Amino acid sequence: MRKFSTALLCITLSAFVALPAFAERIRDLASVQGVRDNALIGYGLVVGLDGSGDQTTQTPFTTQTLTNMLSQLGITVPAGTNMQLKNVAAVMVTAKMPPFSKSGQTIDVVVSSMGNAKSIRGGTLLMTPLKGVDNQVYALAQGNVLVGGAGASSGGSSVTVNQLSGGRITAGATIERELPNTFGAEGVINLVLNDEDFNLAQQVSDAINRQGGLGSASALDARNIRVMVPRGNSSQVRVLAQIQNVEVNVGPMDAKVIINSRTGSVVMNRDVTLDSCAVAQGNLSVVVDRQNEVSQPNTPLGGGQTVVTPNTNISVRQSGGALQQVRSSASLNNVVRTLNALGATPIDLMSILQAMKTAGCLRADLEII
């Protein structure tokens, strides 16, 4: 008996020891304030197309842009010249500048047609300055556009696979200007949680304080956590690397049910529970059937005329409607099994969940997107 109790105790202790393995790292729960991508945008031209460029009569900005570019290269286009451009397309170029980027590094760019070009496949993007929100040039983009789609047309018929009016240039832009970096300038690192939660913010703060040498952490609100660390970029980078690997035992989160009214999808997390209630779910259908019948005279010489008379039948059907009991459930599997037992479609399930929330038997936040 004592051996059995000892073995049971070892299994129980091993189970508790294994619990921290399910903890989440701070790097998965929060991000560092100020460390983010910056959007860049530019306007340029793609040349070298195989007759699939913009129609200049409908997109005059393409001709104007080409004229301005040629004038900068020392070529003057006579006024009133009607250039019929078929191999040129006006495009918008977008990119994301990663944090801590340095001059000379390359980034990927996305090229999208803004005119009526049929395809930019096989084209070359001319040098395009990419600007930030402050209207300053931070990168220059140029290169051959890679389009993942394909298309063919002949005799009025066409076949298109994927999108031909947009492409991508890998390492197509070179960074020319660096962003000002204030990381760690005042000896403070601000962590921003992905989801606002007072309990989680306090748990993250306590987990950092329990680690020696990582500074003093304090939760400012449900999303922001301030960490006071020693000055100096090298020490702060080392401290932040250690902070991001600290594991936090995440407790129960807010129970949520997300309903997408456009697609009819319903998603719920594991903390959703149900209280006992009764649900009556039935379908009422009205069917209107109209058929046209031809009425002819009995004798050809009777002077009558052949007429068409409509015959309309209206029927009302109601199926289901039985009052079903929904038992209280404390796990996601039981909740799903209970809702499936109602036999409701996703569209009906949205109405049922809304009614459950109003009745107080759905223990979750209902969000409709």
TrEMBL record:
Q: How does it assemble?
A: The basal body constitutes a major portion of the flagellar organelle and consists of four rings (L,P,S, and M) mounted on a central rod.
Q: What is the name of the protein in this document?
A: Flagellar P-ring protein
What keyword terms does UniProt attach to this protein? Bacterial flagellum, Cell projection, Cilium, Flagellum, Signal
Functionally, this protein is described as follows: Assembles around the rod to form the L-ring and probably protects the motor/basal body from shearing forces during rotation.
Identify its protein family. Belongs to the FlgI family.
User: Carries keyword DNA repair?
Assistant: no
Location(s) in or outside the cell = Bacterial flagellum basal body
Q: Which residues form the signal peptide?
A: 1-23
Xref: PANTHER family: FLAGELLAR P-RING PERIPLASMIC PROTEIN FLGI (PTHR30381), FLAGELLAR P-RING PROTEIN (PTHR30381:SF0)
